[in-house]
Design goal:
The structure is a single chain. By secondary structure, the chain is mainly β. Helix content is 0%, strand content 40%. The structure holds zinc ion.
């Protein structure tokens, strides 16, 4: 990915639906399908983000090395 160049990324939900987000060099933003008014934002570098939606309490993980984000089931959220 080139600096300053935005691409579309796929956000894959547990129910199989997908949402399209926008990404630049290492980070991405997307709107949660629950209707939460602010975009969610995370990064792939240096470590892939795990992102929580304040609106519906979904969790999302960035898939390392791929321009893709997946919804986590809560049991997969590792405590830190
Ligand atoms: Zn949400």
């Amino acid at each position: 990915m080139a600096d300053g160049h935005f691409i579309s990324v796929e956000v894959v939900l547990k129910d199989g639906r997908t949402v399209t987000g926008r990404a630049n060099d290492g980070s991405a933003a997307w709107l949660c399908p629950c209707g939460y008014p602010s975009p969610l934002l995370g990064t792939w570098f240096p470590d892939p983000s795990v992102v929580h939606c304040p609106g519906c309490h979904r969790w999302y993980k960035f898939v390392k090395g791929r321009d893709r984000i997946e919804e986590l089931i809560p049991a997969e959220v590792s405590p830190r």
